[in-house]
User: Fold NADH oxidase 1 from Thermococcus cleftensis.
Amino acid sequence: MKIVVVGSGTAGSNFALFMRKLDRKAEIIVIGKEETMQYSPCALPHVISGTIEKPEDVVVFPNEFYEKQKIQLMLNTEVRAIDRERKAVITDKDEIPYDKLVLAVGSKAFVPPIKGVENEGVFTLKSLDDVRRIKAYIAERKPRKAVVIGAGLIGLEGAEAFAKLGMEVLVVELMDRLLPTMLDKDTAKLVQAEMEKHNITFRFKEGVSEIIGSPVRAVRIGDEEVPADLVLVATGVRANTDLAKAAGLEVNRGIVVNEHLQTSDPDIYAIGDCAEVIDAVTGARTLSQLGTSAVRMAKVAAEHIAGKDVAFRPTFNTAITELFGLEIGTFGITEERAKREGIEIAVGKFKGSTKPEYYPGGKPITVKVIFRKSDRKLIGAQIVGGERVWGRIMTLSALAQKGATVEDVVYLETAYAPPISPTIDPISVAAEMALRRFR
Assistant:
């Protein structure tokens, strides 16, 4: 069997490795635009800040590692078309036939049509080349004031990186809060307060209409001209669908796939940022543009091609980050989105400590849990705290994936030791608060 993978990022690289474990004889070819296989895009802000020394350090495995696994690499290569009738991929260098084709073509940074967005000193943060350009610009120009357009994960992590380098940072966001797709306004305010302690300011419900100067010297917000030596455009990403669309595959916001990650052509799969899957709460189609989702999709696609009856489960989009030592974990639906979707919910919220009150060193933690009233099931959570958010959001997400009810979380068996956790965990206390709204 000949398997061709288009895309050498997280999804494509992991698929190739999973596939090789399952089938030692298959011919596996990975075609990628970049010069390396998988690296971690989530690590890029930490390269800018200097926490990770060099851009090359975020490459997971050298190209030679894949070649030793007898995975053929065609890097620095662009795929121009897919001929489904002849089952061939046409690149800028050659034509490659396939038995199975896996599209792991990822996403691209969305750049809104702002006047001056092409000027020197304006960047996106999506690739190793982006990081190299930003670091070179900082070394040469030594900017003191940065403006970040967009308060999503990439925007905030970029803002943190610039602040750690001593810059004054302004984050401009069209919505009324930071992380608007992940957090409600109450939990977002906790993150905002922490970031404001570190020379970062915010302007919400506003947009940048113009970037002035090349190199940049200011941005225009409304009628105001705000000084800026560097601008980061972090207004989200868009799935790369052009190749699939030109090949006649079904495409919406992403490439439409079934539970096995097959496209409308059963011999072609789509995985990672480009694939449109199912939302676990609403049942609607959604994108799951997370590294963890890319790896899970890669595993499911490889196993299905190998003959296993496996499916990619509907996604809650569980995510976590850390900003200036503050951990933020989320999954599922927010309170605001539930109202928009017409889902009646019960919300529980608890603000406490990560350790018993009598034990020194506890850090504040806020847990917000969201249950659907119709079936009492857990459908979302937001946790903001100084430590151990990861374990709690993972626990709640796992419970939600298993269909846990409010009672399941209230009466959950948890672990206790004074240096680590209280006797009644904050997630159970928050669920108790929600339970009262069912009575």
Q: What stands out?
A: The domain at 319-436 is CATH 3.30.390.30 (Enolase-like; domain 1). The two ends are 59 Å apart (CA to CA). Residues 291-305 form the longest helix (15 residues).
